[in-house]
Structures
1.
Amino acid sequence: MHIESLTIHPIKSCAPLNVDEVSIDARGLVDDRRWMVVDEHGDFVTQREAPTMARVLVRPAGTGWRVSAGETTCVVEAPDAEARLDVTVWGDRVRARVHAEGSRFFSDALGRAVRLVHFGPEAERAAGSRAPGAKVGFADGYPVLVTTTASLADLNGRLAQPVPMSRFRPNVVVAGAAPFAEDDWDRFRFGEIAARMVKRCERCSIVTVDDGVKTKEPLATLSTYRRSGGAGVFFGVNVVAEPGRLRVGDPVVLQDS
């Protein structure tokens, strides 16, 4: 097995960015989901309620990011620590930094009052309860999301119209595994980096957003064979990993428990 592709999502729920290599720090992939859009109450905003966020492109620009919605662009860099706001992501309160120009950009792009916030170096957030001691930025619950090419091929073989892997917003895509073999992984290595599978990833309606428009697939088909009792529908796995450097092509080797 090997790493087929690597992806970061600099602003949570906006368009992904494929990279050839990336570092992992204490909160997951560097630059992955370190920015987030929040509403007037400080609650996080995603494609669930604002599907057009899928069309907002985020690309490197010097030490920051160029954010584009149609013909409108904005460059954002880490804001000063003085402008802070308590925000909420899945029930966790985080003291984040507010980016004023980025907030105006997203308010215009989404047609509602929102703010763009940054997970500064002083911010703290614990990962989900299945990874005690692990940290995370604005990702849903765990620092690294892993999927496999075989699992997507299995799903697409059941769909009238295939879907791209980007619908599932993974960080690491692994080639060379059997379909859904990742469900049973425990400890493994990305190249020289030790990693551990924490839990299968329960999927929500975001996977049904196709270029900013909500559809029914692939969640409808996944629910016919990837549902576990009343717990939800699963695709991919949540992972914690030690700090290091990941590269496309790195071997992925399962370890003895």
Note: The chain has a mean pLDDT of 96.
2.
Amino acid sequence: MKIVILSRNPRIYSTHRLVQAARKRGHLVRVVNPLRCFMNITSSNPMVHYRDEALNDVDAIIPRIGASVTFYGTAILRQFEMMGTYSLNESTSITRSRDKLRCLQILSRSGIGLPVTGFAHSTKMSAKLIEMVGGAPCVIKLIEGTQGKGVILADTSKGAESVIDGLAQMDAHFLVQQFIPESNGCDIRALVVGDKVVASMKRVAKEGEFRANLHRGGTAEPVKLTHAEQDMAIKAAKALGLSFAGVDLLRSKDGPLIIEVNSSPGLQGIERTTELDIASMVIEHMEQNINRKAEYRG
């Protein structure tokens, strides 16, 4: 296969590992910066150009599109889709997952367990919003934050109202979410490839921090998921249309709760924690999907 990885930096661990795994399995692979691409939008011959070259013979795309370039990156991916190119995760699924509000609404419609979450436009609703999620402490999240950025724990109702007022003044969109104390500064990352969880790890926040993201100084250890947790992670990825996803969940007294679904999950932390070759699993999944697509056409 001829594979293009849409990534701004070939030296990033996840991009490098996917290149490694694809070449090991005999594929031709290259890394293309989506911001260096431009497109010809036409019904007769849609095309994506990279610098001075037309990318018209690509079999598969692996999107590694950062949150800061979601709009343009998914536009380029959408153009490849118009050309009939297979994508590991499709553009619509990526945009669904990147918008935390839209993501949670889709998961809610699918009956997937979530922390109680509120959203409002007017700060006049702040007190009711905080009360609705169980009062303080509560979690306030920017809708488009990543890696724990833009996530704030408000210990008091007054503190929560102050944060909401400050965000509103910056015209930022945010969610107010129930705090799950029994999670005790831990969350679980389940990595879904296709229709199964291939790896999972528990992330533990550093002392004095409630966010367990490894980018925030958290530590990780392998963890075995319950059947309910596995089923929920797979169901969440499918609800968003993702065939490769990092599903983050909390263990609560009411069972597992999904807090986020990542359409471009990093491989470094989970490969090193579990000692599994996840990059090769991703490439193998792509091979199977493309072969099935070819058989269907035949």
Note: The mean pLDDT is 91.
3.
Amino acid sequence: MKKEIDVTLDERRVRVAANIVYGQRKYWGGQIYRNLSLSLLYPEDVSHSGESLPLIVWFCGGAFTEVDCNIWLPEMSRYAQRGFIVASVEYSTTPATVFPEQLEDAKLAIRFLKAHAKEYYLDPSRVAVMGESAGGYITVLCALTGKDKKYDKNGYEDYSDEVQAAVPWYAPSQMSLMPRPHPGFVDVAPLITKDAPPFLVLHGDRDDLVPIQQSEILYEGLQKAGVDSDFVVIKGAAHGDPLLCQEKVRELVTAFLSEKL
């Protein structure tokens, strides 16, 4: 059966540039180096439109012991369709590295992306960090340490890793109170100042891995410091729950980032 249909162009097509090397980290007892990579999602039409789009730097979770920067690309492509460049970033894991090397990697990735802003169609003055679980913790730390140069190592130090917004998903923040200890990792509360960028904190009320009290402590600290911040509790959501990947949440995050960036 032959048919003809009319189709309107309602959604932007998204492309991926996978496994871009942004730095290296000593490995195997310091005897060799291993590459650190990120994958970039972008609306296809931006490559010939001349636009510079806002950037979301995404950090996935993995209990600080494992990370795959490509596993969340299907969900992150929804944000690229909405007009963001999205960089999903690999960072070092334990026990091969120790804190704060994970944070150093994350901040290096931000500086790398800003250094290649023209090449990657992004606006270096409109950058947000977003991540889930362990990646949410790194998200919080990146947002709170943008002016702290002691973590700026391994390249592109002429560029700033300050960001304009942060969206942590079910992130640990008071590491000393976590059920599962992570030696060496710091509590974020002492790092919060009035200079922090706007925050949108997301957490499910049925999270039995990272208790919701972790986000409550973060939000209370942000509010006490006078930081522009919102805390959204996702009813019925457990840790890593698909409820965080529904259109209602995407619209919430998109609206926040569009306003702050």
Note: Residues 56 and 86 are 5 Å apart (CA to CA).
4.
Amino acid sequence: MINFLGLCIQNLIKCIKYILTRQVRFSTIISQAASVSYDSLSISLIIAFIAAAVIAIQVSKQFLMSGADTYIGGTIAIVMIREIAPGFVALAIGARAGTAISAEIANMQVTSQVDAIKTLKVDPIGYYFTPRLLGAIFTVPMVVLIAEVVGIIGGMFVSNATIDLHPARYMNSVWLWLSTRDIYISLFKAAVFGGLIALVCATQGYETKGGAKEVGHSTTQAAILSTIYLLIADFVINLIFYIAK
């Protein structure tokens, strides 16, 4: 874990240098952004909607029994924005797009495509990593923002269906509880998570040696490592912004 983290940091530094030399193409970034986030949008929104619906089912009747039904919308909004949407969307993107990144780069490594790039005096880490890194950093927050809206609306529909909570009371609670700071932190989380997914999965793929069997193993390891690093990053960000403020 420590050695792999060191490799990720080294690759990140090389990507930054590659960005500063302005060698990365905008069209490549757009292509990778679509591959990372747009292709994962549907599954991310489904997960966000179901998560909000489950939370609404769990809290609605309990809040109604205690006379706190006006707090349901705010509770769901805070939970979705602070934790559920960034975390679940990142895990979904890591499982889908992250493993694809790892498998693609691992395949390039075992089929000597990376060596071919080196003969052209092109930095393979900058060439392969940078578009995926930038694409994930800029577009994962967009997916998270849409997922938050879908989750809050999903919670409204479920609350109305289960305890007949009027949408106006629900949304009024959302506006009272919600703050722009929570949204900013949520988007910051999403950007960090997106960068971690691209960096960890690309590094895992780049370190692959052998043949087809090792490509499959590398893909599995990428999913595991990206999940671990996402959870660690989530804990650190929460510690900084919500506990140590």
Note: The first helix runs from residue 2 to 20.
